[in-house]
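Figure 6 in text form: structure in, sequence out.
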């Protein structure tokens, strides 16, 4: 084998050295130098049941011994059938049908296409725009990025993107309308109605939102009744509501799906990340029976799909992950550990002036950093506050996730703290101890 350069892998930062992982056990990852890292963000909010779970490894092996790959146009499999049944049993309302894909971006893009097709099948061919929010992230492929209001990730590709983001986020810490809940009467939700008037309901297929805003802002949690209002507006104007549960789904927030905190039933849902807890790439779009009935009575086929969609190997793994969550009652534990985690983060806020806000639900917690807590002035972008904190934490043996999606007056520096559901009380204390130390080091430098 001819090795031409030191590493042939294109990594996120081309000028940075990354440690090489050796193995993972529970909430810890180990590199090849023997250093341990507590996985305080489940990788990318993905390794929901921790590393090295034996029942998942066994399921993987058992399925591989039967068959790993079949093509969805030729076969279904027991694993895919059982997984879809289980997902439908976790999902609210009539979200009964599952379309398997391989990443969150594919899941949101498939939801977009199903929504457009649903209206086309009824002769309403003009309804093909998707509305979304600024300060949102729905994926990196061009369709998903078109729906995303993540300025940093959009910017380079603007000429190729649709102008889908059209409403402000429900960002109470920095209300885009300078208002306060509840006297605001949910101006941010009402703005959807204005956008519909401007664009025309006859041109709009769906509205998409992350129940809790993750990658672009750090667990920004909408106020009570926000999604009830959104759903009401969508129904009034015959617009489908897509919940992007890629990060918030599968138990992460202490309920099966993030939207369950508002008791709203979406028309379509996108899942990914925690669905397979990272043991294999797997994602899905769940559609309501009503939508699939219309397509079944019309063209009879959803115009989407990927080579690896519904492959039995990934399905068996995801099914084992969901069974593990059920058998160990992990969603209840998320709620309990989440309370401990958020209390610990709030205690750190008492100690460090640079923490402007702490928020989130279950084990999806966020922290936003500010130069001045009173005025909420963000740190200048060039100070790289989030990245420096992440580097310090990693040096100290803790992994945390950047949620710093904002420039141009949007949200500033933020992180997500989202450990695996299996984290113990002592391990949360250890996580908080290392975060405290890392914040201390950063605060000193920023003085
Ligand atoms: N949707 C949300 C809410 C996400 O957080 C992400 C990834 O962070 C995606 C979609 C895209 O998922 P993937 O990176 O698997 O394509």
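Output sequence:
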């Amino acid at each position: 084998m001819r090795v031409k350069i030191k590493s042939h892998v294109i990594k996120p930062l081309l000028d940075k050295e990354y440690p090489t992982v050796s193995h993972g056990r529970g909430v810890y990852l180990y590199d090849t130098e023997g250093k341990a890292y507590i996985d305080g963000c489940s990788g990318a909010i993905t390794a929901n049941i921790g590393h090295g779970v034996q029942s998942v490894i066994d399921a993987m092996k058992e399925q591989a011994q039967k068959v790993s790959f079949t093509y969805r146009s030729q076969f279904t499999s027991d694993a895919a059938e059982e997984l879809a049944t289980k997902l439908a049993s976790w999902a609210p309302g009539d979200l009964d049908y599952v379309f398997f894909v391989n990443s969150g971006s594919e899941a949101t893009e498939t939801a977009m296409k199903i929504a457009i097709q649903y209206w086309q099948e009824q002769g309403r061919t003009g309804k093909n725009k998707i509305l979304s929010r600024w300060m949102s992230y729905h994926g990196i492929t061009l369709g998903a990025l078109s729906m995303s209001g993540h300025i940093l990730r959009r910017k380079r590709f603007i000429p190729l993107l649709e102008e889908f983001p059209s409403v402000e986020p429900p960002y109470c810490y920095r209300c885009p309308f300078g208002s306060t809940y509840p006297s605001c009467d949910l101006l941010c939700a009402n703005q959807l109605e204005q956008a519909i008037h401007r664009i025309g309901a006859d041109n709009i297929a769906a509205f998409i939102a992350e129940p809790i805003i993750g990658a672009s802002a750090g667990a920004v949690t909408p106020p009570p009744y926000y999604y009830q209002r959104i759903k009401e507006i969508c129904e009034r104007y015959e617009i489908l509501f897509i919940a992007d549960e890629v990060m918030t789904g599968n138990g992460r927030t202490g309920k099966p799906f993030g939207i369950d905190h508002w008791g709203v039933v979406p028309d379509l849902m996108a899942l990914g990340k925690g669905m397979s807890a990272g043991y294999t790439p797997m994602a899905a779009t769940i559609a309501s029976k009503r939508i699939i009935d219309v397509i079944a009575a019309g063209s009879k086929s959803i115009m989407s799909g990927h080579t690896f969609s519904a492959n039995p190997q990934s399905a068996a793994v995801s099914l084992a992950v969901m069974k593990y969550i059920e058998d160990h009652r992990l969603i209840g534990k998320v709620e309990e550990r989440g309370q401990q985690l958020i209390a610990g983060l709030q205690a750190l806020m008492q100690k460090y002036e640079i923490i402007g806000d702490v928020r989130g639900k279950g084990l999806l917690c966020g922290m936003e950093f500010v130069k001045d807590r009173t005025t909420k002035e963000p740190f200048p972008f060039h100070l790289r506050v989030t990245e420096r904190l992440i580097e310090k934490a990693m040096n100290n043996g803790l992994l945390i996730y950047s949620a710093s999606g904002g420039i141009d007056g949007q949200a500033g520096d933020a992180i997500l703290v989202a450990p695996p559901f299996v984290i113990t009380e002592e391990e949360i204390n250890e996580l908080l101890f290392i975060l405290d130390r890392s914040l201390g080091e950063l605060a000193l430098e920023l003085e």
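Caption detail: The longest helix spans residues 330-351.
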